[in-house]
Each structure stands twice: as structure tokens, then as C-alpha cells.
Amino acid sequence: DAAEIVRERLWTDRRTEQGPFDIVGDIHGCFDELFELMTNLGYQLDEQAVEPLAEGQSPRYWEAMNWFKVTTPEGRRAIFLGDLVDRGPDSPRVLKLVMSMVGAGQALIVPGNHDDKLARKLNGRDVKLTHGLAETMQQLDGESDEFRGQVKRFVSNLVSHYWLDDGKLLVAHAGMKEEMQGRSSGRARDFALYGETTGEIDEFGLPVRYNWASEYRGRARVVYGHTPIPEPEWLNRTINIDTGCVFGGALTALRWPERELVAVPARRTWAEPARPFLPADQAAPPLSAQQQHDDLLDIADVLGKRLIETRLQRKVTIGEERAITALEVM
Questions:
Q1: pTM of the predicted model, to two decimals?
Q2: Is residue 199 classed as helix, strand or coil in its secondary structure?
Q3: Rounded to the nearest 5°, which phi and psi values hold at 68?
Q4: Mind spelling out the 3-state secondary structure of 131-155?
Q5: Which one, out of 26, 58, 92, 215, has a CA that is 20 to 30 A from the CA of 174?
Q6: Which helix (H) or strand (E) holds 252?
Q7: pLDDT for 15-31, tens place per residue?
Q8: Tens digits of per-residue pLDDT, 132-182?
């Protein structure tokens, strides 16, 4: 009779947090572009010098460090979709900015596969120095042992994904299927970091990724990155905002709940992509993400009342009686 039951939410379940949020795509060490994007979003960033620890003083955790003093737009927080490091020119400063904001409660971050690989390397695992990790380790060699220790603690303790805003928003580096949302299993974490592959290899020697978004029908809007694309587009309540900044594209953010996209172009091509993603000159306009994957009619998509979102984010309502008439004509 005296027992009390307390329900604790999983680390991934933050549905009680409403936002508004500014969600930033894959950065890959592009600090100048990140600084410009955050400024355009209304954040004021002041870089500060941090005094080194005195001899014999115990190390401080990364939460206590303030490499940057950040003033946020009123009521807003940033969310970083991972892949902070590798390939770009200044991964340490990207880490310092993000760690300062997370430590001050001004931002959330989910890990990318490159951040996870850096964590394994810093923890002494046998990791190959490929895909930009060699450049990141070289850049970190110019930093203090204290900073590298703080980076190790930071990237080793990141939560795979976050379920936010009464379940209406989910952020994960490579996306998240509906049945995995809010879970903390190893399978959910692997999907959040890497997505899902078909087992095939393409002509560039890269694994072919299974396009889970083409079949997604969940309630939450899923914002993710991982695979660079020329322009972000909504597909079945999902949007990929990795526009390949480090590959000469752009660094993109999505404002939530406004669903407004803000982007800054890359200063230069910092690394060559193994698979080209920027569009070549072509006479006909490219198909949208929805058009590319509308090869099979799902009856659930056209029955009943539907709200259709157009490219300019204006909604068109189709009543049930009109949907039935259209199906009869088809």
C-alpha cells in the first residue's frame, strides 16, 4: 500500500519539450558556414578564451566550459543533427560552439556516424582513419589534452534521437522508422546513425541505402540528414536537410514549427564526394522527391479526407467525397 509508482521517460522521449527549434544539418567541420548560418537565424556568437587548468586541478566536464557565449533568439533552441566533424577545415571550433550551447541548455544534439566513429577512436578502439577522420585527429592534435578529454566524454554520451513536441517532431541523423521512435534499443540507435542498406553496392563502391522515407506513414515529422542532396524536400512527413556543405553545397537549417528553410552556401568545396549529388545542367526540371517515389499507389494515401502540402508549404484539402469520385474515375 505504501508503494509509489514513478514513470520515467526514456532518454529519447522528450515529447514534453515544445520548441521552437532551429534544426541544423550535417556540418562536417565547416565552422565559417555554421557561424554565418547561426547568425542568420538570429543567434549572437562571441568566441571566448578559456583558461587552461592549473597543475593538479581536477578536469572539468565539458558542460562547464564556455568557449562561446551565445545569445539565442527569444524562446528558441538549436538542434544539431550530428556529423559535426570530419572532412572540413575546423572541426575543433565546431565542437566548441556546439558543446558550449549544449552545456548552456541552448541546444540539443543527436550523434552522426562520424561523431560515433570519433568517439570509438578517442576511447581506444581500432578504427580506420578514413572518410575524414584523419583530418579531424590531426586538428585535435593542436588542442590540449583537457579539450580532447572533454570531446571524448561529449561524443561518447550522445542520445541516438529525440522525440519532441507532443510527438509531432522527431530528429535523428539518418532518420527513424515509426516503430522505432522513442525507443532506446541498439537497433534503433544503429538506424539513427546509419539508416538501412539493401546489401548492394553502387557504381561508386558505396552501399545502396534503403529509402525508408518513401514508405514512411508515421504521425511525427522526421527531420534528418546523413545523405547529401541538392535541395531539401518533404517526402511523406520526412525531410532530409543535409545539403552537402562540405562537398560544395550548402549548410541548411529548418525552423520548427514554422517549417521554414534557411541555408548558406559553402565557402568552397572542402572535400570531393564519392558519389556526385549536385545536379548537372539539364534541360528538364528534376523530379521532386515525392515524384521519384510515387511508383506504387498506397490506398491509405487517397482514402478519406487528406491534406496535401505543396512545394510552397500551402495546404490543399481534399474532401472524402471528392477522393471517392476521383478513385471511381481512375
A1: 0.84
A2: strand
A3: -130, 135
A4: CCHHHHHHHHHCCCHHHHHHHHHHH
A5: 92
A6: strand 250-256
A7: 999 989 999 999 999 99
A8: 999 999 999 999 988 999 999 999 999 999 999 999 999 999 999 999 998
